[in-house]
Amino acid sequence: QVQLVQSGAEVKKPGASVKVSCRSSGYTFTSNAISWVRQAPGQGLEWMGWISGYNGNTNYAQKFRDRVTMTTDTSMTTAYLELRDLRSDDTAVYYCARVPNIVGAKHSDHWGQGTLVRVSS
Amino acid sequence: EVIMTQSPATLSVSPGERATLSCRASQSVSNNFAWYQQKPGQAPRLVIYGASTRATGMAARFSGSGSGTEFTLTISSLQSEDSAVYYCQQYNDWPLTFGQGTKVEI
What we know:
Strand content of chain B: over 45%
Helix content of chain B: under 10%
Number of helices of chain A: 0
Structural class of chain A: mainly beta
Largest interface: A-B, 25 and 22 residues
Structural class of chain B: mainly beta
Largest sheet of chain B: 7 strands, mixed
Number of helices of chain B: 0
Low-confidence stretches of chain A: none
Largest sheet of chain A: 7 strands, mixed
Oligomer: heterodimer
Number of strands of chain B: 11
Shape of chain B: globular
Number of strands of chain A: 11
Strand content of chain A: over 45%
Distance between the termini of chain B: 34 Å
Low-confidence stretches of chain B: none
Distance between the termini of chain A: 40 Å
Order of helices and strands of chain A: EEEEEEEEEEE
Radius of gyration of chain B: 13 Å
Shape of chain A: globular
C-alpha cells in the first residue's frame, strides 16, 4: 500500500534552516509528484509547492519562493523540503502528499503523517 | 490567486441527518476541485476529487457536486465518525489554494 513516512519533529531557532524528509513506498516514485502543505497551530491548510518525482521540476507558492527548496532523491524514493530563514510564524505541521498520476490532477490522494517544526528562541 | 470561501464555518448536525457544506471560488476552477476531511491530530484525507468523484475507501454517503465557482459536499446520513474539519481545494490554477475549513460537529 502507498505510504509516505516523514522525518521527526524539529525545534529550530529564528534564522535557522530546517530540512524535512518524506520517504515514499508502495508505488513508482517517479510516476507522481509530491506536494508540500503546512498547517500552523489551530489554523487551516496552506499549500507551499510541489515537485515532480519524474524530473524534479518544481512549482513554489510565491510566498515561499525566496526561502524554500524542494528536492527528491529517486534512489531513496524520498522528497525533501528545506525552509530557510525560519521565523516564529513558520511554526507548523508540515505535510508531504502524493499527487495521483492522472492527467490534469494536482490534488493529493495520500498524505504523510506530518512533521512538527517549532521555531523558538 | 484563487480565493476559496467555505460556509458555514461550523455545522452542528444530529446523527442520521444530512449535512451540506459549500465552497465558492473567486474565479472558475472548472471541475479541478477536491474535498478533504481532517480529524484532530491526523493528516487530511481525500474525500472527493474532480468535484464529484469519491476517493477510494470513502463511504457512499459522501457526495460532491458543482462546477465553475460553486461546489457542495453532501453527507447524506451523518455518522459520529464524520465529525471533522472539511477543507475544499482548487487545483485549476497555481498556486493551489484551500478554503478555511468547515467544522462538522455531531
